[in-house]
Structures
1.
Amino acid sequence: MESRPHRPLVLGVLGGIASGKSAVARLLAGASGVVIDADQIARSVLSDGVTQAALASAFGPAILHSDGSVDREQLGRLVFGSADARSKLESFTHPRIRATIRGELAAARARGVPCIVLDVPLLLENDAQHRLVAECDALVFVDADPSLRDGRAVSGRGWASGEVARRERVQMSLAEKRARADHVLANDGTRDELEAAVASTLRAIAGRSRRDR
């Protein structure tokens, strides 16, 4: 009897801003897996000249650098302060981001990639539009202390202290994201501790996924 091909494991990563979701996603995927990075895709969309012109028309030339590229920090401060501005931005960018994520997911499955990790910041919030949660075998929540995350954003992203909390106020609560996750791992220690936590989580996922594999 012909054997059925192995279906890739698909994992979704949840967590707060600057919790280390991208680092965890790479560790979960491992050397043979694939990370689908929505932020990277968004950067690619924002680098398109047509999108840049549309955003400058909608939000004003101040959201562009002198070379015409989008000032992501300026744009972020603007849209996280206004629901209308955020909705307008999403109408420009989200359809293309969703289509690219879907295309990369299909391509990875077709290649027989053993593990596909979705590093999508608004995975739960925008599920009604992209329907990616149903594609996941497990959801992993990355837990980190709020003060630690704030410090990471200040030192690593150049944000003002308190900006993480301000942006998260317009997103689904971390308590709800944590409650909806199948697995929770901590990222407030050393790199070795994080790698051990990811390895433990992968063992747990291998023992029981969200649906039969």
Note: Residues 9-207 form a domain with the Rossmann fold fold (CATH 3.40.50.300).
2.
Amino acid sequence: MRCFIAVDLPEKIKEKLRNVKFDERVVKIILPSDYHITLKFLGDVTESKLERVKKELARIRLKPFKLKIGKIGFVPNSRFARVIWIGIMPKRKIIKLKEDIDNALVFLFEREKKFEPHITLGRIKSVRNKDRFMEMASLEIEGEFKADSFKLIKSELTKEGSRYDVIEEYS
């Protein structure tokens, strides 16, 4: 089964992000219920490996911390944008949590070389009016929340998009 580890967002933050309007001809919008901060993508995991993952993640001690949502960004960059996302600040504590997860799973999965904490808002189909589109990049959305847990999530790809089911929550 296809899995990843993420910090879920409170409804008040999802609501703020839901209010960011995109031209649906330009951006395929992620459902607000699916907004999260991916900490580690595991890919396809066997049942036996999944049990080891759950055991290792349970050993991680998470001290709750506050995060803020910030500026809009693009992957790979604004000139060749494929994904639109919103950044997370401060980065230090969420990067530390990601490193703790990498350390716990180092014997099961490779470490990821680069990590930019963010929330994916949508996938970019095509950009007709570059100037108007780039105005979105100047958007800054304010919102603060407490990260007090992370989740192991099963991801199933469907015609309508990804469907997520929480396997386990760690706090």
Note: The CA atoms of residues 65 and 147 lie 5 Å apart.
3.
Amino acid sequence: MQDDKSLIVPFFKAIAVPQPAASKEAGRPIFKDMEVVEVRIAGDRNFAPTFPAHAPWKRDENGDDVTYAERFPEAYARFAEGREQVADGTPLSELTFLTESKRATLRSLKVYTAEALASIDGKKLNSLGPDAREMKDAATAYLTTAAGTAGTWALTAEIEALKAQMAEMTGVAQASKGEPDDANEKESIKAQINELTGSRPRGNPSVETLREMLADMKQVA
């Protein structure tokens, strides 16, 4: 069973709130923008309470208010930066045992991740349909397998990072040795051939070919 936090998906948005007193005074409709959060619960189609984003959610051990924006800091940051708001976890698109229609049905029931599908239970699980238990078990198995291979993924990423670092160090070392730059050498050889023959080589011969041409010309000269 996953942590119940995976069943909760916060969705922040800005709404226009009517200002009756200001509207009456101005003689026209007046609205004020307010940031709110819609708290979506996996498996519950009809229950999604909405709260002001900066209203107190609870008090911490020091007696200080914790707002909804502070309760869901990553989701609020995505909203504030104008980025797409997504549920934290493994998206349903990664679950290959689901058809696209099943994914659409799950999203309509506010189940957006493998973690939520593995965590849902009771009446909310039954609301997913007759094959809900099979989907839940498959999601649980997927997450268990993924957890078992996490070390392998981390090791592979570390090896790739070391390879990239070694390649960069090798490039720096070669540059420090002053190895000839092909483009500069080509230009130098072409200039020498031009002095000997009165014309530059045509096309784009390799530096090895140019070296051979220059050597042959010097022997003839």
Note: The mean pLDDT is 85.
